[in-house]
Amino acid sequence: MRIQILGSAAGGGFPQWNCGCANCHRLRQGTLRGKARTQTQVAVSSDGKAWFLLNASPDLRAQIEAVAELHPRAGLRHSPIAGIVLTSGDLDNVLGLLLLREFQPLRIFATSAIRKIVSQDNSFFRLLERVPGQVTWVDLRPGAAFELNVQGESGPGICCRAVPLPGAYPGYVNEEERGRLAEDQAVLALMLQGQGGKLLFAPALPAVTDQMLALMRDCDVLLVDGTFWSDDELRQARGGGPTSREMGHLPISGPGGSLERLSLRGPRKIYIHVNNTNPMLDEESPQYRSVRAAGWEIAEDGWSFAL
Ligand SMILES: [Zn+2]
Asked: Residue 1: which residues within 8 A CB-CB, separation 6 or more?
């Protein structure tokens, strides 16, 4: 399995257009030892020909252009992108779908609840279904395995399993509808198995259960929620707002944080979906050093590797 990290920041990217936090400010000034990042986007492929996107970021157009493997190869209209798997209905995970609306046949794998809130409750997304065969929504059941294959083809695809997480539906879903939607279809982690190993993709990880820990131990690579360093990080940066845990992101530091909970040996551990306020983006910070000393890497745009 080939894995491309096209974007590695949380929503807003790094720097974020309206953010003057220490990280964003210093990055713009050129005084931060650290790297700019676009919003999280990962692509996987079993054969290097057909690619599947894990979510569809608002930065997708530039992210596709940055990687030659994702460019058209056959004729006037073509894309090696065969499908998209959605881990939630968050805008940062689905806005990129609108950039893929050029009558390109695509499969979108999502839970029925995510399909409903995205494609039926937001009329813009009907642009993806203007002609028959444009977009095919494939129902994804939490816990069930499915094959990431090109439509109509079988073969050594990637076996994927959606792991339900205790997360919430996005803010654009009203209270009444939230009550009607299945709780286990809101936020997912993805377990992907190719011929060479297993990858867990969890850009939003609200908590680490013992069951999740067992799944992670069985993996070769973890791409895990590195959004916030501390639970009150946004409050400190903005003078108010929700905590990291309230936003569905287990913070990295502190008691019960991911650094403590995921002190696993074995899998390659990579933080992704890093918010621009996170002090570990400064490669001269003690936070960066402690993450690296604990065996973690911090994903950067443009990384690619094989499993
Ligand atoms: Zn910032």
From this structure: 44, 45, 46, 158, 192, 194, 195, 196, 197, 199, 306, 307
Task: Give the CA-trace dihedral at 148, 167, 165, 57, to 10 degrees.
Answer: 30
Q: How many A from CA of 141 to the centre of ligand 1?
A: 36
Residue 12 Cα to ligand 1 middle (Å):
9
Q: What is the DSSP letter of 295?
A: T
Per the listing, tokens 């918010």 go with 275
Ligand 1 centroid, distance to 275 Cα (angstroms): 8
Pairing of strands 135-139, 145-148: unpaired
pTM comes to 0.96
Centroid of chain to Cα 74: 28
Query: Cα of 20 to ligand 1 centre, how many Å?
Result: 5
Spatial neighbors of 138 by CB under 8 A, at least 6 apart, are 83, 107, 108, 109, 110, 146
Strands 304-306 and 2-7: antiparallel
Contact 220, 267 (CB under 8 A): yes
Give ion ligand 1 contacts, CB < 5 A: 19, 21, 24, 276
* Cα 237 to ligand 1 centre (Å): 8
Q: Tell me: the pLDDT tens digits for 77-126? A: 889 999 999 999 999 999 999 999 888 889 999 999 999 999 988 889 98
Measured CA to CA, the distance from residue 231 to residue 233 in angstroms comes to 6
Q: What is the DSSP string of 47-110?
A: SSSSEEEES--TTHHHHHHT-GGGS--SSSS--SEEEEE-S---HHHHGGGGGG-SS--EEEEE
| 166 cis-preceded (ω within 30 degrees of 0) | no
Q: 40 C-alpha to center of ligand 1: Å? A: 16
